[in-house]
């Protein structure tokens, strides 16, 4: 099932406004783990806007009220084709720094930046890309341990490829 970018972005904005009226929540514990369901788009060479759905596993540590460090790994489930070119994602991983805004309330906007490595197959030919990744998201503290998030991440962006993830996720803070 495909979900368009506009739908996910509308969900993010609606969630942020809806949740802003709740009481302020902060997480207990400095370590967290979680998972995201991701909508991935791939542009590389002759392929334009191939769409894949997948998952991302995340783990991190809150370093300061404003900063967290995180590692992620994931892959797309299934494949897509564009003009006869079969597109598959083997895996992706990366290390990131998240900068959060200390706002009152359970919704915390954040910026994410770091390094990603992505490996895809195009008609069975493996192509890899790596480099700087960046994006933004909103984290919603459902309680002192459980969080929900929505995020946009430019996973790869160079002369050869542009790959994006739009994700909905859950996290647990230890």
Structural class: mainly beta
Q: Can you give the mean pLDDT?
A: 88
Number of strands: 9
What is the alpha-carbon Rg in Å? Answer: 16 Å
> How much of the residues is beta strand, in percent?
over 45%
How many helices? The count is: 1
Q: Largest sheet, if any? A: 8 strands, antiparallel, barrel
Order of helices and strands: HEEEEEEEEE
Q: In order across it, which strands form the biggest sheet?
A: 1-2-3-5-6-7-8-9
Distance between the termini: 33 Å
Gross morphology: elongated
Fraction of residues in helix:
under 10%
Uncertain parts: 13-25
Explain what this protein looks like in three dimensions.
The protein is mainly β. The chain contains 1 helix and 9 strands. It has one helix at residues 5-19, and strands at residues 31-44, 47-62, 67-77, 79-82, 85-100, 107-122, 125-141, 146-157, 161-173. Strands 1-2-3-5-6-7-8-9 form an 8-stranded antiparallel barrel. The longest helix is centred in the N-terminal third of the chain and has 15 residues, at 5-19. It starts with a helix and ends with a strand.
Question: What are the main properties of this structure?
Answer:
1 helix, elongated, 174 residues, eight-stranded antiparallel β-barrel, 9 strands, mainly beta
């Amino acid at each position: 099932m495909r979900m368009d970018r506009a739908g996910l972005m509308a969900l993010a904005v609606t969630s942020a406004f809806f949740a802003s009226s709740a009481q302020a929540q902060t997480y207990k514990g400095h370590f967290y783990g979680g998972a995201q369901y991701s909508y991935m788009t791939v542009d590389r060479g002759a392929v334009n806007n191939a769409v894949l759905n997948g998952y991302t596993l995340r783990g991190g540590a809150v370093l300061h009220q404003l900063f967290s460090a995180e590692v992620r790994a994931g892959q797309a489930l299934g494949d897509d084709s564009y003009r006869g070119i079969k597109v598959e994602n083997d895996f992706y991983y990366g290390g990131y720094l998240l900068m959060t805004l200390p706002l009152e309330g359970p919704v915390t906007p954040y910026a994410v930046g770091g390094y990603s490595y992505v490996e895809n197959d195009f008609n069975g030919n493996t192509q890899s890309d790596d480099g700087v990744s960046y994006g933004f998201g909103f984290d919603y503290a459902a309680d002192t341990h459980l969080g929900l998030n929505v995020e946009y991440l430019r996973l790869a962006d160079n002369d050869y490829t542009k790959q994006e993830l739009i994700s909905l996720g859950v996290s647990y803070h230890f």
